[in-house]
Structure formats: structure tokens, C-alpha cells
Design brief:
574 residues; alpha+beta; Sulfite Oxidase, Chain A, domain 2; 4 domains; five-stranded mixed sheet; five-stranded antiparallel sheet; 13 helices; 34% helix; binds the ligand Nc1nc2c(c(=O)[nH]1)N[C@H]1C(S)=C(S)[C@@H](COP(=O)(O)O)O[C@H]1N2; binds molybdenum atom
Length: 574
């Protein structure tokens, strides 16, 4: 017979597995279908008002946590009890878990707009939990009895003796019974002993009589197999819980995101001229669709930020620290702006650039409200996941459309691109300006603070370098001789692109035709026709910005402050 503690442990772990699996399923079906939450919700609904008031008074904001904690404690006690009972007859365990399941299902079904699918997490959780319990108890009662467990090395009776004092209340934990050679003393060396006995089941032989004295036939009890099973169960329960919470958090944030109604902008973007998009096959469209927009960040798991609890704190070198909620932000005058973002790690000719219409609150407006101090020269912004950008104050305050952005191309900011709020600053690389999931802005100084990438070998300041790229043809393309359109984009954010030149086989530079642009903050399409002749050809591009700077041939790698050089492709013409 398995000792009571072992049954309780198996019950607890099986309960954990049940909840983990339920959590995982709830992550897919909907967080509110997690039975613990559903039972908690029912409890809240059934609680008389005076008790509720008492709870809120006593626990304040933690009232939900206390409630869920209470439900979990009750569940743990009942699960342990089920485990103890199931040692005698496994049907007790199944019945106990089924009772659990019924309570969970009823709780879920009483929720508003509950569907049949919503009981799935509870049902699957209970089923897997019941299986886990019987599996653990089967292991505990000596795999020796089972066909698969053969050979003298198997734990069988010998290991039964290793039921030691490691676990409180164990009946065999009698130091005097141990052979001296096992090195055990009541005060010390327990873990050393445990390791040793795990290696040699021999010491157990000596202990068996003590076990027998406990009055039960413990030859069938296999502590080691139970504990390895328990360890496995704990891992499964933990992993399922973490994964389920991840998925569930994602769902909750997705739901909140879908529920956001974007206010009308107070300041509209300048109209995009009809000639901004040359509509050439293979050429990047003037506006990059959200799903095509490059994504660069350090987040292994995309932060899931609930807009209802999101806050933006502005503090540091300001007269009046400010704290804004998402609702506060949506009530402020919103500015719409077309801005091309670029990543400093973009290689010449690379894909880390995209142009979108952003909607947001001007950062300068918020900073003025806070009372920016004159000695400040850096905004150290921090994201929900701890990433930081250091942005020059003068750039943000010089009148350009630097935004705390809430929307991208008419859509609430996608989670990947920083929902609920990110920064967008025309003219600066993303790593010094474009903090996604931003939650904190410390007004400070470059000589006092450092942002994420600075100690990693990147420049503290990152103005975007004027660049141009050939989108079509692609390098390595095989073309037919005759008229070929070469086209691409060029950018010099907040300065503007004034000219793009193309040359073939290092001959003379020719002026490309420039598309129209609404302003200096976006990239600019260009195109040029070329009479392709048979053979292998090299095509190069360079841009000149409105400040009169022409891209240099000199190649520099992206680190520390952006690549330079001319985008060069080769094509074959037949
Ligand atoms: N929280 C956070 N924000 C971040 C980053 C990051 O790693 N974490 N990377 C920055 C960099 S390097 C760039 S280029 C832009 C990219 O923005 P996107 O992913 O929306 O294109 O985000 C910036 N904002
Ligand atoms: Mo970047």
C-alpha cells in the first residue's frame, strides 16, 4: 500500500497537471474559460455585497489575487485528499476528479455568453489529471508488478527501503536503522545519503524491516519511481501553465486591441500626391502594408500589454512629472503623419525600411505639459520589456512630427509594432527613437544615461543616413534585351531626397525620375528606363538629399551608426 503522503503528493501533482492542461486549453479557447477563473467569478457573483465590500476594503487591488489564491488552496487540499483516497481504489480518484470537473463545468457555463466549447479546458484538464493520477499511483505501487519492468536493476522492493526521513512524517525515518556506512545522521548528511541510496539500493535492504513495522506491505511501494513521475508531472504542469498564460494573455490583448475605437485626428497628414506611387511591378509601394512592414526588436516573446492598465510615465528633468493612461492619450489632439522608419542594421540595399501613416500624440506636447527643463538633452524611453532608446531632446522638440503613436495605416497599432503605444521620430534610426510598447520616458542627459544599444557598440545618437535602394530588377535577374525599367526607393528622413542617379557598368550617372512625396519624412520612389544590351551588367544608385549631401561610394558596415555605400546589383541580359 502506498503511504498517505505519497497519495497526497500524487493527488497534488495530478491536480497541478489538470490545471496546467486546463490553462493551456483556456489559452486557446479563451482565458475566461479557465475553471479557476470561472469558479472565482461565480464566487464573486454569489458573494453577498457586505462580504464583497469587506474583501475590497481589506484586500484592495489584490482582492482578485486573494480570491484566486483561495480557490487554489481549496483545490490543492481537495486534490491531496483525492490522492490519498485513490490509493485504496483508483475509482475514488476518478470520482473525485469528476466532481471537480462538474463544479468547473457548471461554473464555466454560468458565465455570460458561455458556449459549449468553453467547457473544453475543464473537461480536458480533468481527463488528463485523472490519467496523471492513475499513472503516478501505478508508478508508486511498484512498476515491478508490470510486464515492462524487468531485470534486477529495477527498483522493486529494494528501493522501497529508500523511503526515508526526507519527507516529513515518514514512518521509516529512523536514523538508528541506518547502516553507519551509509553515512547518515539524523542531523546531517541527508541529501548526501539520498544521493548515495539513489545509486545503491542496497542500503535499503536494511531499512525494509522498519517499513514492515509500519504495518503495511510496502514491498510494492516504489518511492523513486513515484518521485521521478512527480518531477515529470511538475514539469508538465508548469510548462502547460506558462504556455497557456502566454496564449491567454495574447488573446486578452488581441480582444482589447480589437475593441479600440480610433479617434479622428486633429491634424491630418498632408495629402499623398497622386504621383507618389509609380506603381511599378516589384517596386516597394509608397505605403508599406502592416503585414509587410519589417520588424526588428529584442523581444523573444512579443510583449502583451493591456491598454486598460497601460500607463506612460514622464519624469526626470521636468517640472511636473506626468502619468498618462491610454484613455488620456486618446483624448489628446492626435496628429497623423507619414513617416519612413529605418533600422540602423540595414545593409545597403537591405529590407529594414518601411513607410507608414502613423497616428499619435506629439511627444513635444506631452513634454511641454511636463515642463521640460533646459538642461535636459536626452529622452530615455523604456518599453514594457525593458528595452531602452535614447533620443535627443532637440530633435523631438524642433517641430517635426515625433509621436507617441497609437495607430499604423489606419489600424490600431499591431502588437508586433508596439501596441498600445510606440514612439515614431522622423529622421532617427529605430534603435534611438522608435520604442515599441513604451511605458516610461525619463528626461535626462546623454552624459548621465545610456540606452540599450550604446554599450553594445552602437552610436549613442543615430540620425538616419541618406540611402537609396534598387528594388527592380533584382540582383541576379535574367532580362531580355531592350527597354528595362530600373526603380527603387531613396530616403533621407526629415531632410528630403532631391535627386537620384543611376549608372550602368560604371559609365556616366543619369538622373532618375523622382516620384512626388508629401514631405521630407518619407522615402521617395524613383525610376529610370534603360536600353539593356546583351551581356552581364552592373547597376548602381546614389541619392542626393535636400541638404546637398550625395551618398558616398565608401562602404561602411551598419555598426556603429549606419551603413554607407552605393547599392550595386548585377543582371544578365540575353
Ligand atoms: N521595445 C522595443 N522597441 C524597439 C526595439 C526593440 O528591440 N524593443 N527595436 C527598435 C529598432 S532597432 C527598430 S529598427 C524599430 C523597428 O520597428 P518595427 O519593428 O515596428 O519595424 O523598433 C525599435 N523599437
Ligand atoms: Mo533598428
Amino acid at each position: 500500500m502506498v503511504p498517505a503522503w505519497a497519495g497526497a503528493l500524487a493527488g497534488l501533482v495530478a491536480g497541478g497537471v489538470a490545471l496546467g492542461v486546463a490553462q493551456l486549453a483556456a489559452g486557446l479557447v479563451g482565458p475566461e474559460t479557465f475553471p479557476v477563473v470561472a469558479v472565482g467569478d461565480v464566487t464573486v457573483d454569489l458573494t453577498p455585497a457586505p462580504v464583497k465590500d469587506f474583501a475590497i476594503r481589506t484586500f484592495g487591488e489584490n482582492d482578485k489575487a486573494v480570491l484566486v489564491g483561495g480557490v487554489l488552496v481549496v483545490l490543492a487540499l481537495v486534490a491531496a485528499l483525492i490522492g490519498v483516497l485513490a490509493r485504496r481504489r483508483s475509482v475514488y480518484g476518478v470520482a473525485g476528479l469528476a466532481a471537480f470537473g462538474v463544479v468547473g463545468v457548471l461554473a464555466v457555463l454560468t458565465r455570460p455568453d458561455a458556449g459549449v466549447l468553453d467547457v473544453l479546458p475543464t473537461v480536458v484538464g480533468v481527463a488528463v489529471g485523472a490519467w496523471a493520477l492513475s499513472w503516478l499511483l501505478r508508478r508508486a505501487t511498484g512498476g515491478a508488478a508490470r510486464a515492462g519492468d524487468t531485470g534486477p536493476s529495477d527498483a522493486d522492493a529494494a528501493d522501497a527501503g529508500t523511503v526515508t526521513g526526507d519527507i516529513p512524517g515518514d514512518v521509516t525515518g529512523d536514523a538508528a536503522e541506518r547502516p553507519v556506512g551509509a553515512g547518515r545522521s539524523a542531523e546531517t548528511g541527508r541529501s548526501a545519503e539520498a544521493e548515495r541510496s539513489a545509486e545503491s539500493g542496497r542500503s535499503a535492504e536494511v531499512e525494509r524491516p522498519a517499513v514492515m513495522r509500519a504495518g503495511a506491505d510496502l514491498r510494492a511501494f516504489d518511492r523513486r519511481k513515484l518521485l521521478t513521475g512527480v518531477a515529470g508531472g511538475v514539469v508538465v504542469a508548469g510548462a502547460a501553465t506558462v504556455l497557456g498564460r502566454q496564449l491567454g494573455g495574447r488573446q486578452a490583448v488581441d480582444a482589447a486591441r480589437v475593441g479600440v475605437a480610433l479617434p479622428k485626428p486633429a491634424t491630418l497628414a498632408k495629402p499623398i500626391p497622386a504621383g507618389a506611387d509609380l506603381r511599378i511591378n516589384g517596386l516597394s509601394p509608397f505605403i508599406t502594408r502592416n503585414q509587410d512592414f519589417y520588424r526588428v526588436d529584442t523581444a523573444l516573446v512579443v510583449p502583451q500589454v493591456d491598454p486598460n492598465t497601460w500607463k506612460l510615465r514622464i519624469h526626470g528633468l521636468v517640472d511636473r512629472p506626468v502619468e498618462l493612461t491610454y484613455a488620456d492619450l486618446l483624448k489628446m489632439p492626435l496628429t497623423e503623419a507619414d513617416v519612413t522608419l529605418t533600422c540602423v542594421s540595414n545593409e545597403v540595399g537591405g529590407e529594414y525600411a518601411g513607410n507608414a501613416r502613423w497616428l499619435g500624440v506629439r511627444m513635444s506636447e506631452v513634454l511641454r505639459q511636463a515642463g521640460l527643463r533646459s538642461d535636459a538633452d536626452m529622452l530615455l524611453s523604456t518599453s514594457e520589456d525593458g528595452f531602452t532608446c535614447g533620443t535627443p531632446v532637440d530633435v523631438v522638440m524642433d517641430g517635426r512630427e515625433a509621436l507617441f503613436a497609437i495607430a499604423m495605416n489606419g489600424e490600431v497599432l499591431p502588437v508586433d509594432h508596439g501596441f498600445p503605444v510606440r514612439q515614431v521620430v522622423p529622421g532617427l534610426y529605430g534603435y534611438v527613437s522608435a520604442t515599441k510598447w513604451v511605458v516610461d520616458v525619463k528626461v535626462t542627459r546623454f552624459d548621465r544615461d545610456e540606452a540599450y544599444w550604446t554599450p553594445r557598440g552602437w552610436s549613442a545618437k543615430g540620425p538616419i543616413k541618406t540611402q537609396s535602394r534598387i528594388d527592380v530588377p533584382k540582383s541576379g535577374d535574367s532580362l531580355k534585351a531592350g527597354r528595362v525599367t530600373i526603380a527603387g526607393v531613396a530616403w533621407a528622413q526629415h531632410t528630403g531626397v532631391d535627386a537620384v542617379e543611376v549608372r550602368v557598368d560604371r559609365q556616366e550617372w543619369r538622373q532618375a525620375k523622382l516620384a512626388q512625396v508629401p514631405g521630407p519624412d518619407t522615402w521617395r520612389q524613383w525610376s529610370i528606363d534603360w536600353d539593356a544590351t546583351a551581356g552581364q551588367h552592373t547597376i548602381q544608385v546614389r541619392a542626393t538629399d535636400a541638404a546637398g549631401y550625395t551618398q558616398v561610394e565608401q562602404e561602411a558596415p551598419p555598426a556603429p551608426d549606419g551603413a554607407t555605400g552605393w547599392h550595386t546589383i548585377t543582371v544578365k541580359v540575353a
